[in-house]
Amino acid sequence: AHPDAPGVSIKPLGDFTERHVTVAMMRIEPGAAATLGPRAGTQVCVVLAGSGMVDGKLAGALTSAKVEAGATARVESDAALELVIYGLPIFSAATEESRLNVVVSAGLRP
Fold first, then answer.
1. Neighbouring residues of 9: CB distance < 8 A, sequence distance ≥ 6
2. CA nearest to 8, candidates 96, 91, 86, 85
């Protein structure tokens, strides 16, 4: 479980090369929410199971969403939502922001 957001679990699976290609799994329990980004590179998430919303759009199994570099996306869960998040290569000079950045919001969604 993520210490800052009840109902959100994140499992980093890897951070590869100097361009920080990353892979992580995320599980969001019903009623919980998380925010993806911002990150120096683009992120792509794929819903593996469950249902919810990604930036206000319905998301179910095999739905994908792209989060552009520097942007954020709010992910909310109606039924336990499981996602895989891919951080695509970073081609900017930024190094500190280069890792997978999953910022979670505390508490239930509004």
1. 1, 2, 26, 27
2. 85
Q: What are phi and psi of 55, to 5 degrees?
A: 50, 45
Location of structure tokens 């520097």? 70
CA distance 46 to 51: 12
Give the CA diameter of the chain: 39
* CB-based contact 21:69 (threshold 8 Å): no
- Strands annotated E in 17-100: 21-28, 32-36, 43-54, 57-59, 64-67, 73-87
Per-residue pLDDT of the chain (110 residues; tens, 9 = 90+): 566 778 999 999 999 988 999 999 999 999 999 999 899 999 999 999 999 999 999 999 999 999 999 999 999 999 999 999 999 999 876 544 444 555 444 444 44
Rounded to two decimals, the pTM is 0.80
